[in-house]
Amino acid sequence: MFKKASDKRVAVFIAEGLEEVEGLTIVDVLFRAGVSCDTVSITRERQVTSSHEVTIVCDRTIFDEGFSFDDYDLLVLPGGIPGTPNLRACAPLCEALVSFSSRGADIAAICAAPSILAELGLLKGRRATANPGFQHVLSEHGAELVADEPVVVDGNLVTSQGAATAMDFGLELVRRLAGDEAASHVAEGVVYRS
Hints:
This is DJ-1/PfpI family protein. InterPro entries: Class_I_gatase-like, DJ-1, DJ-1/PfpI, Prot/Nucl_acid_deglycase. One of its GO terms (cellular component) is cytoplasm. Residues 8-175 form the DJ-1/PfpI domain. The protein is an alpha/beta fold. The protein has a single domain (7-183), classed as Class I glutamine amidotransferase (GATase) domain (Rossmann fold). It is 34% helix and 21% strand. The chain has helices at residues 20-32, 83-88, 91-102, 114-119, 135-140, 166-178, 180-189, and strands at 9-14, 36-41, 47-49, 55-57, 60-61, 74-77, 106-110, 127-128, 144-145, 151-154, 157-160. The strands form 3 sheets. It has a 7-stranded mixed β-sheet with strand order 5-2-1-6-7-11-10, with helices on both faces. A two-stranded antiparallel sheet has the order 3-4. Strand 3 and strand 4 form a beta hairpin. It is globular and about 45 Å long.
């Protein structure tokens, strides 16, 4: 049962071909911390199929009446292939990422998805990480690559490396939105071992 513990709201953007572990781990961890989190399809369909053929039914789509990126305090991009290129091809999402970045609002991306932030120019001069297969994209676009850290925080940006770091990533987002005590409580509840 969800027990709201924060006024913060999070949107996790779901594209065809996402890495489901990277998307759903974040949703689960935020739920456990009492942080409202919507899964948001970037298509007109709420039902999305992951890269491993898992069907996910999203809470809403970016095309729903009344949907606004500005209703959220944090925008999260899971990785996966072809999920990441599909997110990158979504013009409204990319515009929202640029807008959020320009005002210092929180953005998080994991695995291949930090490459989207790099290509949009949002990581220039910023510390960041990504899946090793995509780290060159960050470097090529002026990021200060932190290749060996599972999660990297630089101001309003949180990046992470992949499916195996999804729990670390989710707990960092909980820490950011609900505090250290909430992150510790969730970590204990899921028997997290760092």
